[in-house]
């Protein structure tokens, strides 16, 4: 079999980074990672640094990538409002496709990373379990615009597309704006350093609502499956660990890993109460001989506040992917403990 070449767009994020690691383990792939900061080349992986919002720079940087067979798109630009998210995120995807499609004559597939915003999860309670064929909600929503762009662009071409819709993704990755496992790990570590109990900081209803997660390794497997199996192309798929939980039962188990006592939930803004903890974090890095990582890179408190404010069920139906042939499963409690232990082994947390 001829070797495939994967272009990972958003290579420095938790999703892109885990996807690169999965493709390396799988073998048979030449891998090119794209991000604003670039990365260190190794083995079958090389990195390109480019600002995808700069159309001309993107064209120049990707002009020579004639060997690309698969685009795995997982890039994201944050903005203050839902409406403001649309132009940059649609522009980045458009710029990548416009640069690669004319030169990569053996392009097989474009994979798009989405999420439950497609179902309106960011707006409030939505119909659960969400299904891929649920009716659309009032725009704006950049995930929808991106998929519609690919559907239009794919007409009459030889390549296919797929869209993956994970729940909250958890994995090991620094400097990522949407990594809940890192939020929890740093919050727990600082709580322990201060000698205070582990309190759930979100809305009271969020503590008892049903939620599910998506392990970054499982998501990588699903992404490659959807991109390389003829029977799964030109479709969107919900991808989750396969179990559901309530924070009221998960929180004490996480506390036990960090050897913390649990106290009743106390709704608070992590973005506000953790804003002054930079000096404490630097002290912890020195005291516990941790990897020297800036406080700004170890957590995104805004994202934690966003997730912990969901005082309604956030679950989706994954039967479509199972019917199509993807049967991977991860126990969420085990996932959290594995990720936390890996962070500890890597000296990211005490």
Structure in words:
The chain is of the alpha/beta class. The protein folds into 2 domains: 4-168 and 215-239, 3-Layer(aba) Sandwich (Rossmann fold); 173-212 and 244-314 and 330-345, no CATH class. It contains 14 helices and 11 strands. The protein has helices spanning 14-26, 55-62, 82-100, 142-154, 180-194, 204-208, 216-228, 247-257, 270-273, 278-287, 295-298, 301-308, 319-324, 332-345; strands at 4-9, 29-35, 45-49, 70-73, 109-113, 160-166, 168-170, 210-211, 213-215, 235-239, 245-246. A 7-stranded parallel beta sheet has the order 3-2-1-4-5-6-10, with helices on both faces. Strands 7-9 form a two-stranded parallel sheet. Strands 8-11 form a two-stranded antiparallel ribbon. Helix 3 (82-100) links the parallel strand 4 (70-73) and strand 5 (109-113). Helix 2 packs parallel to helix 3 (82-100). The chain starts with a strand and ends in a 5-residue tail after the last helix. The model has no long low-confidence stretch (mean pLDDT 96).
How would you concisely characterize the structure shown here?
The protein is α/β, with parallel strands linked by helices and 350 residues long.
Labels describing this entry:
single chain; 11 strands; two-stranded parallel sheet; 350 residues; 14 helices; 14% strand; alpha/beta; 7-stranded parallel β-sheet; Rossmann fold; globular; 41% helix; 2 domains
